[in-house]
From TrEMBL:
Keyword match Electron transport: yes
Organism field: Tranquillimonas alkanivorans
Source organism, top-level taxon: Bacteria
Coiled coil: none
InterPro entries recorded: Cyt_c-like_dom, Cyt_c-like_dom_sf, Cytochrome_c_Oxidase_Subunit
Annotated ranges, domain Cytochrome c: 26-104, 100-186
Keywords annotated in UniProt: Electron transport, Heme, Iron, Metal-binding, Signal, Transport
Cleavable signal peptide: 1-20
Name of the molecule in the record: Cytochrome c553
GO molecular-function terms, A-Z: electron transfer activity; heme binding; metal ion binding
Pfam family, one: Cytochrom_C
Transmembrane regions listed in the UniProt entry: none
Amino acid sequence: MRAALTRAAGGVLLAGAAAAQDLPPGDPEAGRRIAGQCRTCHGIDGYAQIPIAPHIGGEPAGYLADQLLAFREGRREHEMMSVVAANLSDQQIADVAAWYAAHEAVATLAADPADAPQPCVACHRADGIGVTEDVPNLAAESNIYIETQLKAFRSGKRVHEVMSPIAADLSDAEIREFADWYNDIALDIQPME
Ligand code: HEC
Ligand code: HEC
């Protein structure tokens, strides 16, 4: 009995974390139907309906799938999203990520880009659109959401090789200032033609 339990626990540890590239190809049309479960909080097009939920329309499919896998496997935790993700299969994660990724996020910056948070612009740009496929958009994310994530990286509740050390050095005042910058950007999300 004890040997069996030890083997089971060891198996879980050895299995390692699933990643987006291990998933089957996603079908955006099938994903649109799954997005019916997401729309109260994220909208059908990925424009968030509540301040604690992020805009996810136009984010790269790989980033979205990785976050859903992290919620499902407990590497990222949230009382709502952990429950939602627990019920999604690999195929459903690939499909719903493909649906939200099949949108275009267009940010409009009213402020002077020279005032943008300098430690962030190399990856998140002044207008909050990520420079590469693994960098999420921050444009128009609520300051509540951005603050929550930066504090989660700082405390170790959410872990990422790039963001954890960056957040570790931020004061509460910097977190508030940077969150307000990205909060104030206008965002439009449209399905791609
Ligand atoms: C009841 C509200 C609710 C529902 C329904 C919901 N979400 Fe979420 N979602 C949230 C909240 C709140 C967060 C932020 C979690 C946090 O603070 O870490 C989030 C975060 C996410 C993230 C992380 C995005 C990022 O920028 O890191 C993804 C991806 C996501 N949700 C996808 C989905 C999908 C796909 C569905 C439907 C299958 C869904 N959510 C349903 C509330 C919801
Ligand atoms: C070297 C590139 C890089 C720099 C510089 C950087 N980030 Fe990030 N950021 C990332 C990556 C990559 C992720 C995705 C982390 C993950 O996959 O969990 C991320 C994620 C985030 C998230 C979570 C977004 C979401 O949708 O959940 C926030 C908030 C964030 N960064 C804010 C900042 C702020 C504020 C700064 C400046 C102090 C900054 N970042 C600097 C690369 C960077």
